[in-house]
Amino acid sequence: MGERTARVFSWVAAAAADDGEGDGRISPAALCRAARTRLDVDGVSMTAMTGHGMHTPVAASGELAAELEELQVTLGEGPGLAAFTFGSPMLVPDLAASAARWPGFAAAARERDVAAVFAFPLHTGTIQLGVFELHRVATGPLATGDLANALVFADLALQLLLDSSSGVGRQPDRHPIDDTSRGRDAVHQATGMIAVQLEVGMAEALARLRAHAFTGDTPLSEVAADVVARRLRFRPEAEPDETPG
Amino acid sequence: MAMREQRVADTFVELADTLVAGFDTVEFLHTLTERCVELLDADTAGLLLADERGSLRLVAASTGQTQLLELFQLQEEEGPCLECYHSGQVVTLPDVSEVAGRWPRFSAMATELGFAGVHAIPMQLRTQVIGTLNLFRTHPNGLDETDARLGKALVDVATIGLLSERAVRHQEMVTEQLQTALNSRVTIEQAKGVLAERYSVTPDQAFTAMRRHARSRNQRLAEVAGEIIAGTLDVTDAVADARDRDRDHSRS
């Protein structure tokens, strides 16, 4: 695991362990709490979205963070929605200065003393699952280290959303967080191949690939390399076959 | 004007021309690696871009061998391209066998893949290094002075063209642009997988087909990739073409 990924992951794991009500597994709620504590921000939220305009709040570090997400849906504008639509982070260190872009949201945020918003799309290629959002009472950009950590938090948030669909995260003692920087191209290529093999969408293909890796306790990059080399095929409604040779 | 000088002049114009509608960052970086190989005394090139999480990602490589060597460095976290990124300085390696002491795994892998010389140029905007353009030679000895200077100039023009107009005022825009480019790259990888499975071709052949289609229709690569994934674009002809060319190539 990369140094930064390992560090961010340990923060999320610690936040999960601190949760008296939870079972110690990492969760979106733990991730939001960890980000709220470790980054120079005042609130954090995670929202699941679809391209068809559906929004589902997943977790938030507090009421205000949740409310800011709601507001954007109600108003139909804001950095979070823009990040999802354009697939690019929307870093707004001073909302007042960007009021022309989001007049309704900027005004509503000001009423709540929110001055800066940083929104990260939970996208990997054409897989688009939601948005991870930070807000702060004080204006100013994210420090360089905070920005790098926020991008890693967003990577983990994406993986949590993806795995919740395949049930991987429900296994106890398992923290299925991979360091996506290893064998990354092969993982994405394998995702495309599996989508054709199973006739499913990219998100499901990647979720299945990850589930296969984690249940077999094999590194994701190795399973992906096997798929790309055509040593491993996925078949509908069955366990993947090992193809000799 | 001599042919090469004309070609150099054209390339500078091409690399500076980034403020056009439908500008495609991934395609632009591929073009940069290709032009460097054409104009400089290098056999192949690769381009790594910083992902702002503290690691580098491969964005363009002119051959499969180059791709392997670049990915190998990223995985082993050693080698001249990483050194170039961390130091922000040009790193010239006339002979990879001479660095066996410093980067043993890199040296062995480069030799195995048939590379002898490496010349890594940082893509730098003010104090921020956003990536590296790496030139590889199959024969020892580095680039000569003229080529080294021209390579640096090409990379500088490309970096400024890529970032400064949009981002000279805002760090935020650099991040937004880099992350978008990296995500486009993921879409392209996913589409390579789709084509590789559907047509039983290699990922490289799939990429050649997508690129050719994008060029002939004047479309962005990531757009073509997105349509392939959505199932709204048929590239059967372009794939067949890429496969045939590969076959002819390996015969000759």
Automatic annotation (TrEMBL), chain A:
It comes from the Bacteria. SMART domains: ANTAR. The keyword Transcription applies. SUPFAM superfamilies: GAF domain-like. InterPro entries: ANTAR (IPR005561), GAF-like_dom_sf (IPR029016), WH-like_DNA-bd_sf (IPR036388). Keywords: Transcription, Transcription regulation. The keyword Membrane does not apply. Residues 154-228 form the ANTAR domain. Coiled coil: none annotated. This is ANTAR domain-containing protein.
